[in-house]
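Notes to self after the call with IL:
- keep both proteins in one doc
- input above output, always
- annotate only the second one for now

Protein 1:
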Amino acid sequence: MPDISDFFISKFRNLSMNIPAPSSYYQPRPYRNAAVRLRNCSLLDFEERKEILKQAGLNVFMFPAHKIPGCDLLSDSGTTTMTMEQWAQMLLGDEAYGSNEGYFELKDQIKDTFGENWISNDENIQNWFIFHQGRACEYALFTVLSRILKMQFETKKISFEPITDNLLTNLSVKLKQRISKNIEKILDTLEISKKNGPAFVIPCNTYFDTTGANVEHRNIIPLNIPCKEHEDDDVSYNFRGNINLEDLKILLEWGKERIPLIYLTITNNAGGGQPVSMKNIKETSKIAKTYKIPLFFDACRFAENAWFIKQYENGYESKKIEDIVHEMFENVDGFHISFKKDGLVNIGGAILIKDESIFMEKYPKFLEKLTDHQILTEGHPTYGGLAGRDLKGLIQGLKIVIRQEYLDHRINQTKRFGWKLIELLKGKKNEAPVLQPIGGHAIYLKMDDFFIGTDTKDTDFKSIALTALLLIGGHRLVELGLYSFGKLKNGKEIPPDPRVNYVRAAIPRLAYEDQDLFSVAEAIKVLYDNREKIPAIKVTYGQDLMLRHFKSRFEFKS
């Protein structure tokens, strides 16, 4: 018996028969193809993908990548097509167990990329740490920080009672609600009682899913305080990734002793790939210094953020990208980074902490404890879980990523994809369900607007259905919204606060051309034009799990 997916298969099949239309280009790409790989599956294998998708429980993470004939836009993390220069350097990799050649070259490159003061001049101090990826950095940072906090309070015989509603006086209603919801989530996730609940808060412009989960896992509240322009969906504002400075000051006045760290994600991934302005970085740094609270970057897309500052912020239009990067990083005590994004490699991450910083004043034992953690979990500090050849590829990647011509191509390709979607999805009011301005690494479809005018409830999880149907059409995107960031509590779905409801198309670096991305846009248009037919979703497994979007299984409701 045919189901709704058969209807969309017929639409996708008709679409595939169209002849590509020419586009206008006035500048060549800053690179040429030196090697290509032909796909081993066909766009026309719709029925096969339908059956594979059923076996995968409609979960895009579980769909085999080699069966995707179109664009795999699940993530831009670790999916970069590396350059020939990088591959050539990898052949020179030194695979010594300790102190390999690449370690010393990377040490020099970090100073070139981020600034001289990121490598300690004291040979007895190890203040930079290599990890196999950014997620391991997050886990290490918040695991060691929570242990240090516990040690300090035990040594000083000081204890903070857990945060409860009666302690949230002098906060705005918005901040009270968000903190209370975070507390409930942590108590449920960690299966602990209120008397053992979180006593600390780490505010951020917006956490990504695993970063926030790592904070929660250490019984600390990850508090999102995006800027007002972002919450108001101001499409004319170029720096929607900013942190809300007024909320930050209110929070610090309420309880600076409960805030071990302030955190900025650049660019703001879960907030739509939006950049953070230099002004906002500097003002956040000034506030942090006033209250003597360390400031950290999640620096995964630092070069893309610098491009936006050069493009849109007064006084930076004539500055070099590397100078803007240095200025950004002068304002923070430390950062962690997944090199799988703006390192232009497929593996790698790092934590770096200035040895003369507020962070080290507050947590003088941190470097020692982090070194122990790294050795126990990743390996010796001179390789940190990476092969010598990976270090060589990373060094070259850090040289390429700040080149103006690379960043111009990278971000303008994302913009062209976004503009194509806006052109195709414009409704009667000349509006399209696309987050604007277009960010640096991805396009975000606004699901509340996508399904407006249809009979759609939050618990229908139609964003999951959209990504499943699009996979049948040959392309992979990911839901980052009510299911990914929401939670089931006592049989009731609790949406994220602030509300996040997107489907993201993250563009791998140097991997696709406009023809590929525009074909995704046309497939999305098929779904948009027939959105009233997109079915609701039944969750068959995992609705109550932590980080459930990675593990759940679904089926279409009939």
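Protein 2 (the one to annotate):
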Amino acid sequence: MKKEDLIKLKEKISKLSDEEKKLRDLYLRKISLGELYGPMTGYPSIDKPWLKYFDDTSIEALLKYEDKNISMYEQLYNYGINHLDDVILEYLGSEFTYRELLNNIDKTAASLMSLGISNNEIIPIILPNCPETRYLIYACSKIGAVPNPIMPTINQKDLENIIENTKCKNIFIMSGLLDKYDENLKNKINSLNKVVEVHPLRSASGLYQLVYLLTKKNNDDFNIVIDKSNNNVFIKTNDCKDNIALIEQTGGTTGITTKGVVITNQNVYASNYQLSNGGFNFNEGDSILDILLPSISYGAAFEHLTLCNGIKNYMIPTLVKKQINSYISKYKPNHIMMGPIHFEFVAKDKYKRNWHFLKNIVSGGDEMSLKLEQEANSRLIKNNSPVKLEQGYGESECFGACACNHQNIIKNGSVGIPHLLTTIATFKYDDSKDDYTTDEELPFGASGELCICGPTVMKEYLNNPEATSLVLKKHSDGNFWLHTGDIGYVSSEGYIYITERIKDLIFRNGFKISPKKINNIIKENFINYIDTSLVLGIPDKIERNVPVVFIKLKENIDVECSIKEIKDFIFNNFKGIEEIKDVVVLENIPRTSVGKLDKKQIKKDYLDIKKQNSKSKIKKLLFKI
């Protein structure tokens, strides 16, 4: 199809009513299933071949979907009020029913009002995954305030920027965290209207409760605030779908510091709707191992989904890594959402386990190699799991997730098919432009920038119109598309494959280098030597950017011989534009608080060392080949 014909067709589709678009989706599904015959264009956003994988129940839900004026709190309340005696949370030996959950949210909402917190006021919540975090998030929603959950591990600079950007007056923070900040940040926080410290073991029982009693302050801030509440409040807004439900922080690749992703009530409702009706086998009475933080979009979306569907949460407050296998065996959850770093421990586990209870075991939040996917699935089979690993895909800017594999139709190496209400397509990118983006859609199988369209796409970045304009683009079809910065393609069967990050590509003297391709070759040839490796583009005065290889070796190997062998291979096999500028062996490769390789920190450390040219620091931080 010619470019001009495609544009005309998209314009024609954009003029259809919502009801007509739904009927068109039904028509496309029947064509994909072979029930009808009709012309197909060969373009993902027009043909939507993934619709054939949804059953009749999901398609019926798709046809019934409509925007709804309902807050996060109301969604939870509407389910919980009819299941008051059902246990929904378990936290360090304590259980909470919906009655207790809603009651604690009521108390917290009243206490927020007593502090003078007003409608649309942003409330930073710097807490781990504990019940008080849930109370605060839904209490904010109940009174029209805006929760801003933040990881306790956030660095000082980012926290300073958040406080400044949100113009917050009140803050809830984990007990003891203030003591770890420098005096400037302490003074900035203490100058706010109210700083409420919350002990993470406040709601625990048994020995944990004893630790709480021994370590809490004489006057527990959160208890005092709750005790002051003496009335039940609820602020109902008739038109709340576009109101801010919460703000999630993201670093991304468009800036050095964190950005506030504005998620609306409509985003939250649509995410819950498509996950609940998308054929993922989520059922009332199920359970989930809740190891994700609500300060991560991925975590917040699934925590909300489970609370609104009667799926019991086994809440874990700490960042789980090595303990993942024992936690799965202990709690026997039906569902678990994890990241690739967790599956590394699953794949390496030596114990035979019985995980017959699993219904979904999902990987998201970061890229997973095909090798790790295969190793993890092999271990799942040995552990008597009835399900395979499901790779998913999402962005903080697209609340929760936008694509995932489904059991029985899993494609290894793919991140799955778009969710029920979501459209994903690839668009040509132009590396001569600062923001890389175009709205020229590419056909099935063609590699381009993955873009997302649908009701879960964020409203904006908080107080950052420039950054917003770089990722949210109005296309010729009249729709706003989220430009992800990921390079990939959509297969003719509707599966999404990610091959690269645009921002990770190395532009050297006008030529493009794929760091992923180089890294894969190195890892494949030294699988017995290398624990972790990556290739980064480092600024160069002459060549603009040059590739540098960073490696962490496995333990118990001959380091000298291994380094020499790896070095000889790299400098003999990568020539011309792919010639490697430097090879560095790290003692430890830093990761972010959510387990991703911290590329920014690695690059910063490398550049700092090069700049200082300090041999002592090089010896301390890394061994340079």
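Annotation: Residues 374 and 445 are 23 Å apart (CA to CA). The chain is about 35% helix and 25% strand.
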